[in-house]
Backbone:
């Protein structure tokens, strides 16, 4: 009897790639566009993983809706321009060991790899193509198609697309949003401590295991 299929969902920013400088610089450019004081690096990193419009609203609760809309568009413009100027490897470098781990997991027949990210489809495509991962992730859930994390929509869609039972699925991520999304979707949760939320935040949000970094 063959082993059941297993779904391994990865968050991207803070889990597979360290894009903190790219994200912070783009957010500062977005604030400059609307003449607002940018938040601190810590504040910006605390919202990584949320869909962009939700992230901007949390960072700038006192800004008007029109200003926030302008910030969203300015952030997108700055993010794309920085990536075009510097390339994916420079703006979103892989964490040490990430590629080896992904390829090792992909080589196991019963494993299905997926992505659940707050990135847009365009942003995810650049990451996957830039690092040679385009064919490795069977199910790819992006912010364009779902409510922001921690809503379980991404998990639910990934389970539907792959036919994997919830008890055979896991989310691996660096933020409390990932852990809460996994819990709401009824799947296992593994946190990583090299990203943008602390070990305590991950555990409090429902991480069953927290992997230690380099």
Residues:
């Amino acid at each position: 009897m063959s082993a059941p299929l297993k779904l391994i969902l990865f968050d991207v920013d803070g889990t597979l790639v360290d894009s903190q400088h790219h994200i912070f610089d783009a957010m500062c450019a977005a604030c400059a566009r609307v003449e607002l004081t940018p938040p601190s690096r810590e504040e910006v990193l605390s919202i990584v993983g949320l869909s962009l419009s939700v992230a901007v609203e949390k960072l700038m609760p006192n800004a008007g809706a029109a200003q926030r809309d302008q910030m969203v568009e300015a952030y997108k413009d700055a993010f794309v321009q920085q990536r075009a100027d510097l390339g994916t490897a420079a703006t979103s470098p892989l964490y040490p060991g990430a590629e080896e781990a992904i390829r090792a997991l992909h080589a196991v027949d019963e494993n299905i790899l997926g992505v659940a990210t707050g990135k847009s489809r365009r942003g995810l495509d650049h990451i996957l193509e830039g690092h040679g991962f385009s064919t490795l992730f069977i199910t790819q859930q992006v912010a364009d198609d779902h409510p922001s994390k921690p809503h379980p929509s991404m998990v639910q869609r990934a389970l539907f697309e792959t036919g994997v039972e919830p008890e055979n699925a896991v989310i691996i991520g660096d933020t409390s949003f990932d852990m809460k999304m996994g819990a709401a979707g009824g799947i296992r949760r593994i946190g990583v401590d090299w990203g943008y939320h602390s070990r305590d935040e991950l555990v409090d949000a429902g991480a069953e295991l927290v992997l230690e970094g380099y």
Q: What stands out?
A: The beta strands are 6-10, 111-116, 139-141, 169-173, 188-192, 209-211.
